Amino acid sequence: MTNSRRSRRNVTAIAAIAALAALTACAQTEDGAPTPSGGEISADNPFGVEPGSVVEVVSLEGGYGNETVQYAAELVKERLGITATFATTSQVNQEFQPRFVAGDPPDLLTEGSGEHLPVTDMLDQLASFEELWNTPNYDGVKISDAVYPAVKSFGTVNGKFVRMPTTMTLFSLWYSKTLFEENGWEPPTTWDETMALCEKAKAKDKYLFTWGKEASSYWSWLAIDMAVKDAGLDVWRDIANLKEDAWSHPSVIASFEAIED
User: Fold this and answer.
1) Of the residues 5, 23, 155, 240, which has the maximum number of CB atoms within 10 A of its CB?
2) How would you classify residue 217: left for phi > 0, otherwise alpha for psi between -120 and 50, otherwise beta?
3) Average pLDDT rounded to a whole number, residues 214-220
4) What are the pLDDT digits (tens) for 86-109?
C-alpha cells in the first residue's frame, strides 16, 4: 500500500487471508497519517472512500495466481463504486522500483518470495496497515481477529506496519499416490528408506527428485529444514544472523550431502 507524496490521494489496501478478501481505503497526509476521505462511512465503507475513486493495482505473476486480488477488486467495485486498474508483472523490482524513486508508485503492489522491494529504503512512501488491522471485514470480524497474529509482526518494518502477508504455506515432500500404488511402493518414513526407494524408481527409469532451475531456491529451504530438524532452531538463527561458519555446521553439511546423494 503506497502513499504518494505527489498527490496524497486515496490509497487502497487489499488483505486476503484464508480466502477472505477485504478491500478498504483511507486518505493519507504526506507523513502517512490518516485523514477523512470525503465519502460516507458505513459497514461496507468503513474508511469513507469517495465513490468513483480509481486505484492502481499491480500483482506479481506468481504461483498463487491473481484471483484473490481480482475478486477483491470486483467486490469493491460492486459495493463502493471503486474502479481498480489491474496489471500483472513477473519482475516487481525491475519494473517498479524506478517509480518509487520518482515518487509515483502504484496504490497497491503485491510481491512474492523471490521478488522483494527494498521496503526499508522506501518507508516514507508506504501507508500503514494499522487502521485496516482493527477494521471489521465483510463478515463483521476484525481483520486482526481473522488472521494469525504473526501477520502483523512479519509485516512491520522499523515499527511501521507496511506489508500484509496473504498466504500461509506448508512445505513438505509430496508424492503421487497413484504412481506409488501402480508400482507397489510404500511412502518412506526415513531418509535411508527414501534413498532406497529412489533406487527402485531409477530401475524403472523414473526419478523421484528433480532439479528445476525455476524453483532451485526450494532446495536450500529443504536443506535448512532438515538441518533444523536434526539440530534445532539455533542452526537457522545462526544462518539468519550471518554468524561466522554457520553454513559449516555439521547438520547443514549433512543435509546438503543427503540431497546431493
Assistant:
1) 23
2) alpha
3) 76
4) 888 777 777 777 887 888 888 888
